[in-house]
Predict the 3D structure of the following.
Amino acid sequence: MKTHLTRLRARLIAPVLLILSAATTVGVAGANTLPDLGTAAVSTLTIEKEIEVGGFYMRVLRNQLPIVSDPVMNEYLNDVGYKLVANSNNVRTPFKFFLVNNSDINAFAFFGGHVGVHTALFHHADSESELASVLAHEVAHVTQRHLARSMEAQQKNAPATLAGVLGSILLAMAAPEAGIAALQSTLALGQQAQINYTRSNELEADRIGMQAMVAAGFDPYAAPSFFGKLAAQYRFASKPPAMLMTHPLPESRIADTRNRAARYPQRNIPDNLMFQLAKARAQVRFSNYSAERAMDVFDRQLRQPTYPFKDAAHYGKALAHFRMDDFAEAEMLIVNLLAKEPQNLFYLDTYTDIMLATDRHDSAIETLERARKNRPNNSVIDLNLANAYLESNQPKQARAILERHLVLSKDDLVVYDLLAQTYQKLDMPAERHMIQAEILALRADYPRAIDQLQHAYRLSRSNALQLARIDARIKQLRSAEQQMRNL
């Protein structure tokens, strides 16, 4: 493990956890006005450079972390995230929210609007507003440019290259305690100065994040509720989760968040069924639960007379039955749910999975084509439909959907993976190598990506236009590799 972290640091393949999170305490709440950022952080990183650096690190993350490729979960997470972004100020970068399959509770943000959420967060949050409170905090770190501002302040105290700072931040993501020590060593800063700056970041992210939460229609009381539960659960733990190491929760911070929530009018905000469906899906598919244990959780919920989300419990049971290959029971549950909400993407996704698993490809295609008419350009429906066409050995139809979808989403690994399968079925080896190159490039594996393109080049001798495209792409990837080395 230690060797692995050292190698990562040397290559600077780091997600960047905003915010050099060494704080152990949090001070008093500030006013509810936005800070005047002025020219802070400009001399360290421009917005354009932040986006460039963030894009490179996102590619590296795909190669290093178990990022979840689940269109339904990703669409839900981004829906919640974008609602918060739409109600935030100082938004200067695009945002992309993604899930990491990890049983440790954590969330993190880094350059260019990238926000990662561990799947364990769904297990521990009890409402959409609690999930939103964490996302809002991370969005605020990005909009307030905390990483760039931290680096700006630190470089005034001690000379440090961008590479040296980011190399240390790497460890703060993978191993918070080691990363914090490395960062302080890199910057030759005293411990107190580092902690004080991080306190300011955390306070500001709490304050600005809560403003976005309220504007987006979420419950501000969810923030102190979630923070309090998390702190209480792990107060005496010998190994607290990463989130408490990188986002410490002393009593003063929880009290401050509670006081800030009390300044807003109290509203009755009912929870969202979609969150409960996502939570159930995470419990069955992205946790260490066995199918039997998950089933027991949902049965206990259904035995509660006043439990408000029985549809989510039935959905969780359907997923558990599917996992145990009990397709008949899973289908019965899903059909009943679809009768209530025919366009619900969680239900549609699982229903078509059941049909494909039971070799009813034509029924799956018919169901998805019908859904597609009602919701054109929806990634969940399109990708399920393309997969159904592939499963039924109709790669031409899959190709039309996937190539069109690729125009809308240039960084969706699911699309590329399905396209690679499609080109293989269509006996298009050059195109398959080109797609494999893009998959590798999205993971920052530029040498192997270029090797795939060279294979494609040799197979495209009679296609002058394709040769020109491949040659241009090789040059682009070589340039990208050099840029990443020069960060």
Notes: The two ends are 25 Å apart (CA to CA).
